[in-house]
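Journal club prep — side note

Before the paper discussion, L.F. wants everyone to see what a predicted structure for a comparable chain looks like in token form. Sequence:
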Amino acid sequence: MYSLVLTLHSLVRWAVVIIGVIAVVRAFIGWFGGRQWQQLDDRLGLGFTSVLDINLLLGLLLYFFLSPITTGAFKDFGAAMSNGSVRFFAVEHIFIMIVAVVLAHIGRSRSKKSADDRGKFKRAAIFFGLAMLAVLLAIPWPFLASGAGRGWL
């Protein structure tokens, strides 16, 4: 079960990155290009928050129940904090990703409530951009120096 959920979590990460980048790019183009807000822009915001939510649920399953890294960290949190790789998954990864999910939801909500198209794009660009920055910082990329890196898939 652990391997299946971890694989799904890793695969959904790519949907988060792809949809998030597209949503951010369209938001910035719309903000600075004076475009009209379209249904696609709304759908991209919905898609971005949805895949983030799905990946958060998969991550929470791993975090609390399935991952030997985090379940081991809960047994001796002090020792876990002295190990960079364990600390990354036990504290840093989950905290930053929850912040990313919150930022994306704020961006979607505020962009929907904005009265004009420029305001919609501006709010989407700022909050989706911050959410994507957080996501990119917290992904366990293979090249991480802490030893927490995972494979590309």
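L.F.'s comment for the group: The mean pLDDT is 94. Keep this in mind when we get to the figures.
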